[in-house]
Every structure is written in C-alpha cells, then in structure tokens.
Amino acid sequence: MRLKILMVSIMTVLFCGCIANGKHYSSSSHSSTSAKETFIHDKYGDLPHDCHSGATCAYYGGKYATGDGVVKNYEMAVRYYIKSCNYDDGYSDSCSIPGGLYLIGKGVPKDEEKATRWLRKGCDRGSGYGCYVLAVMYKDGTYYRKDRKKADRYFRKGCEYDYEKSCDHVESSHRNDRRKDECHDKKSCAYYGSKYLNGNGVRENHKRALRYFEKGCKYAGGSGENCSFAGALYIVGNGIKKNTGRAAKLFEKGCDGRDGYGCYALAVMYKDGTYYRKNKKKARRYFEKGCKYGYKKSCGHISSSYEHKYKHDRGHKSDDEDFDYLKATRKLEKTCNKGDGESCYLLGELYKRGKGVRRNMSTAMRMFKKGCSKGYGKSCATAGAHYFYGKGIKKDARQAKTLFEKGCRLNSDLGCMSLGYYYHTAKHGKKDLRKAKKYYKKACKLGDKNSCKLYRKM
Known about the structure:
Elements: H1 2-15, H2 34-44, H3 54-66, H4 74-85, H5 92-104, H6 112-124, H7 128-140, H8 148-160, H9 164-179, H10 186-198, H11 206-218, H12 224-236, H13 244-256, H14 260-272, H15 280-292, H16 296-315, H17 325-337, H18 341-353, H19 361-373, H20 377-389, H21 397-409, H22 413-425, H23 433-445, H24 449-457
Helix pairs in contact: 1-5, 1-7, 3-4, 4-5, 5-6, 5-7, 6-7, 7-8, 8-9, 10-11, 11-12, 12-13, 13-14, 14-15, 15-16, 16-17, 16-18, 17-18, 18-19, 19-20, 20-21, 20-22, 21-22, 22-23, 23-24
C-alpha cells in the first residue's frame, strides 16, 4: 500500500512539471569543462539527445518520463536525470526522481540501495520530494529500520523545501500533539507559538501562534514574553482582527512579567497617543523599564532623547543649566553596559566635553571604541577622527582608516565622508580620487550634504 502511495508521489513529481521549476544546487563554479563532461559521458554513454547542462538534461528526462513528444521511456528518463544530477547546475529533483523510480522498480530494476543513495543526494541538495520519500521509508521501515525521530526530521526538512506532502504530515503530527495538550506550561507555549509565528518546520499560522501565546500568558506566573507576543499580533493583525485595547492589556502583562519588549511597546503607545492619552512621563518610564529588562530598542530610545538634548544644548548654551547631565551620565552608563552602542557614544561625548563628569579624553576614547564595537557607526567615525587629527591622542592614520572603514560599513554618513576625505587629501597615504568619489557618494546617499557637494565637484 505504501509503495503505491510513493508511486503516486513520484508520478505527481514527473507530471506536474516540478523539474522545470526545481531548485538548482550550487557549486563554486559551473563545470561545463571537458573533464567533467568526459566523466559523465563515459559513465552514462551516448544518449539520443545531446545535453551539456543540468537544466537541459532534466528537460529531456522530463520528456521521456511523461512521453512529451517522444515515446515514454522511464529507463531513458532515469539516465537523463542522473546525468543532470551530476552536473553542477543540475536540479535537486533530478537526483531524487531516479531514487523514487529505483524504489518502485518503474522502468529500472528495483534496487533499494540505489534508491536511497539518489534520494539522499537529492534531499541534501534541496529536494523536498527526496526528503519526503526518505521520511516515509524511515516511518514504515522500508529498507531502513523504523525510526520515528529520523522520519520526523526528514518530514520537517521536506516541508522547509516547500514539498506540500511533507508539510501536510508535519501539520498532522502537530494536530496529534495538540490533542495530547503539549502546551502545558509557559515555555512550551512560547515554543509552539514561535514555531507557528515564524513558520519553523510548519506552515506559518498567526492565529494558531496567537492561541499558544495567549494560553502561555494565562498560566500562573506566565512568561511576559508570551503576553507581549500576543499583544504584537493584535497590533499587526495579519490574519487576526486588530484590537489595540487587547494589545495594550497584554503589553501591560508582558511588562509586569519583566519582558522588555512589552514595556517598550507600552512606551511607544504612551508616546504616540495610541489607545492611551499621550503621556511623556509614562512613556519615558516604560522606555527605561524596557531597557532595564534588556530590550535594546528601549535603550536606544533613551540614548536618542539624550542626543537630541545634547544637540539642542550645543546650539543653546543658555539652556545648558536646565539639563541634568549627571543624571544623563548615570543613565547612559547603564544602557551602554547593556550593549547599546549609541549610549556609549553619547557617554564618550560627555567625557569629552566634561558635562556631568570630569573631562577625560582617555575615557572618552574608550567609550567611542566601545560604542563602535557594539555596532554604532558614528562612534567608529568619531574615534577615527580623533586618531586622524591627533585630538587628545597620538596621531595614527592606519587606526583612523580602520575605524572610518568600519563606520562606513555600519552605514554612518560621517564614517563614509571621513573615509572619502582620507583618500581625497592623501595627508596620511596615497591619494585615490576614485575611492574618494565612491565614499563621498555613499555618504551623500546616507544624508551628508557636504559629501554631496564634494561628490559633485569631483
């Protein structure tokens, strides 16, 4: 019975034209070289139609398998598919189909050993059909000893490669698991919710994900993460009716459960006046709470608010005394230590200017470098500028260039502009106007107006 089902699967793959749209498996170089072709020719002999690539061999394999314009001949189809599989630009299904035909003895002698070899090759190269047949073999004990774990693994792999029957089996398996009430605590609910949210081994299903997250949120001491994810799904509304009020309540539960994202989401709602009336104090409190619980965007928002104040104060010195730099320093130290690069950069600026702390260029540079290591490009560019000009530190052109390059890679307009200037002026190395123009152009695209002017002049 099972072999009949496999045969139906094989015929489906052959007749639906899947090969025409199948996946290529990649190699570092496409080998249409004489050595490769000689090997393939010697092994498989002359064929009625000449083919010199995986795609054309698969095409002829399909024609002989379906009888399209030629007399149907499975043996000839297998030869073409195997030849396609051995090319570097072949299709993954070209490896799996011969395996299926060897398994049921269609047009070729039945040979389970050859079948498994070609099916494995296809599965390893991205054939969902190959993975599915292997899964069935492990499930039913065909050639292999029965192994439920391996069967499930191959079913999931087949689903990841978009083979529908594999996905159907995975779905069925999860339905059976749900009957056993596998979501019995906050961790298992979060696990299954995430699987359906991201489509990890199953079809993406936001409604089902929401049910798991809400169930996890209801458990005594339920994790804040479950509540926050459920709230986010009500905001996004992908396949779910949007409900801002329900989302807000779930974010509150999430934040109370020490989930940083829940606090951040509440802060944004108070900041923008979504559901709640606008309240800057509450927004700031929730941003700080979110940062405390390790959500980096909350830390980044705090940093941005200090940067805005910092820029404002530089332009309006009379307002300087109204800003509590000591408090800012303490906040930024906390957020910097939590891994927020922008906070480290701003802390460096405060040490550089002596605001809220004693002026200390050595500490400022340490903070700039730390911000750079945390992925904040402007911090890299600022540290590089100090090395380039020798401000408060010994000049080091090589170190400056390295920091400018990293800043530019992190899409800092200052980093790209500085790197362009480095190549333009050649103060510390060989002038390279082509590179200078390239980096000015990138800085211009990132929003630096001076770079736009310099780029147009070159």
